[in-house]
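so i finally got all the pieces together for this one. its two components total, 446 residues if u count the protein bits. some of the lines might not be protein, just check the labels. i wanna see the whole assembly predicted at once instead of chain by chain like last time, that was a mess tbh
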Amino acid sequence: MTQTDTNPSVTDNVLSAIRSGKTRMKPRWHFVFRAILVALGVFIVSIGIVYVASLIHFLLRQNGMWFAPDVGMRGMGLLFLSLPWILVGSVIIFVIILEILVRQYAFAYKQPLMYSLASIVGFAALATFVVGHTGMHGIMYRATREGAFPAGVPLYGPFPLPENAEIHPGVITQVTDASSFTLERVDGASMTVYIANDTRIPKGYTLKEDDRVVVFGVSKDTIIYAEHIRPERQDAFIPFRDEERRNMPPFSEPTEE
Amino acid sequence: MEQHISPSDEDAARAVQHGDAEAFAVLIKRYEPKLARYGRKFVANRDDIDDVLQDVFIKAYEHIQSYDSRRAFSPWIYRIAHNAFISLIRKRTREPVIPFDPDTLFPHPVAKETADGDILREEIAQELEKHLDTLDPKYRAPLILYYYEDMDYKAIADILHIPVSTVGVRITRAKKQLLAQYETRHDTN
């Protein structure tokens, strides 16, 4: 059944093509160069994933949506609806590209796709967490606001707080009395927050000036009726402080040609 | 008459990498019948197989510097041949390329490779020969490599660029498909 003889025409044709120089061996550097390109691609796409994923995290903290799940299922829904889908789509595309690139390596293709995908997602989550703590996006955000980084406007430019989202991140600028305070929101709006008897505030927490808080509650004009107030870390978001705003030129929207 | 100790595939490939084009003849002589036999399981026409094989060996020569001589040569050349035959089938059937196969997505328990004894393995191979063409190439390839080319799961994984556990899954599914066809045929008879 098995054929053991070689086909002379195939052998002869191939050997004569080699001997005549019609078929030439590609040099080793060609493959080394290709391997370097793939490795470089893996590196660049990985950086892209980390950058965009950490930017999403930064933007969601900045507009308060990151804290929305604290108010339960309604908040989860709000967070989902306010996700920057173009950026989320970019991360997904980057992950697919990275998966395709790493599948060329034996350590990846010999394992189920789920493992390499989980490794990529795990790496992205960890790197996003690390980058989030470096304050890199905060620096770029401030630089954009100060006009020192005009290229950053599309990413770090003014982004309105979601309408009717009932989530207000900001800094306490004045504690008027036990039932109200003034909040300067991250978008620069000055709001008066009213605290009711049933407003939820963590036990033992006392409102102080310069504290960063997220206020959950219905707003009307410049008034917020607080349902829940949550103190946040100093680096949770970057407030639009008065003294900074005075020194800053207004944002200029990118102009269309 | 001068007697030569036949070099291993890897030594011959290394010699080609160092500029000994004649050493490539040794590799062609060894692999042309094996790859032709492999190709016959995908393509019926002998001329088509010869054309593909010619391209395979030319491509192998052009890319020989990408071969890592610390690894086995056989999976490397089989991979080139496999891609060439699958590409020919796809061209003819206009089958779309699916980037991710669901079989490769999740981990599967790896079936023991020695599950079939040698005699049984030969019997299975003979029986398979009659019905191979009814199988999807995706299932056909690992079955052929395992039963006809005597390759282990690891080598098959290297040729097909799929997880080792998926090789086992595809072989098992292919056998089940063939068994179902066999039973249907016998029931109707």
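Residues 28-62 of chain A form the longest helix (35 residues).
Residues 253-257 of chain A have pLDDT under 50 and may be disordered.
anyway lmk what u think
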